[in-house]
Prior knowledge:
mainly alpha
Amino acid sequence: MKTLAKAFLGVGLFATVVAVAYWFVELSEEEGRVLLAVWVLMTATVAGYLIYHGVFRDRQAAPGDDATALPEDAAGREVGAFPFSSMWPIVFVAGVVVLGAAVIFGLLLSPVGLAIVTIAVLGLMRESRA
């Protein structure tokens, strides 16, 4: 995980340099500033997660962190837990689409979109307990 965290830190540093340069070069466009700020926050969030779980929790070094590692070195390691197939992510996306349509066509659709998103989140929460 250390190698992956370094990669995300590098992307975050690049994003920060681009965002600061854009801030001073383009003075009239606010959307680009927001987009680049979100890019910086996204990479910082992922890098922080990887650093926290890779450095402080995972005491075993990942095979990707060893420069001399072979694919056989990762054989037998636990990959992770994968959830069962579920319909709730599709319902959630449908709710987000309805919310997006509400922004475009009128806020009258937003209660419907919020209801669909709420139902999907509750379904995901209920399913994760099982």
